[in-house]
């Protein structure tokens, strides 16, 4: 069985730049500062469903 992938979306422009494996034990959405190539800066990226 393959792992499900979840996208990380930029909180500023909304583009989905990164994918991660979903974790069923995670209760809250993951929030990480990542570089957004569309904004050109480090912004908060949130897990999407």
Automatic annotation (TrEMBL):
A cellular-component GO term for this protein: ribosome
Domain of life: Bacteria
Record keywords: Ribonucleoprotein, Ribosomal protein
InterPro entries: Ribosomal_bL33, Ribosomal_bL33_sf, Ribosomal_zn-bd
Family note: Belongs to the bacterial ribosomal protein bL33 family.
Protein name: Large ribosomal subunit protein bL33
């Amino acid at each position: 069985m393959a792992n499900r992938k979840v996208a990380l979306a930029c909180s500023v422009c909304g583009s989905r730049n990164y994918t991660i494996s979903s974790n069923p034990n995670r209760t809250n959405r993951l929030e990480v500062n990542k570089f957004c190539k569309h904004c050109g800066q480090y912004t908060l990226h949130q897990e999407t469903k």
